[in-house]
Design a protein that fits this description.
Blueprint lengths: L1 H12 L1 H15 L1 H15 L3
Length: 48
């Protein structure tokens, strides 16, 4: 899907996309948020 990839690239380069990327980076650096994300992923994968 080249069209979808181009849209994602455009969003990532936009100011809004840069803000979202930075926010995700900060959340990933926070140990509590990282543990919360791991639990969510485990639940989505079916591992409890």
């Amino acid at each position: 899907m080249p069209g979808m990839m181009n849209r994602i690239k455009q969003f990532a380069r936009s100011p809004q996309g840069r803000r979202a990327t930075e926010q995700a980076r900060r959340a990933a650096a926070d140990p509590r948020r990282r543990a919360q994300a791991q639990r969510l992923l485990g639940r989505l994968r079916g591992h409890r």
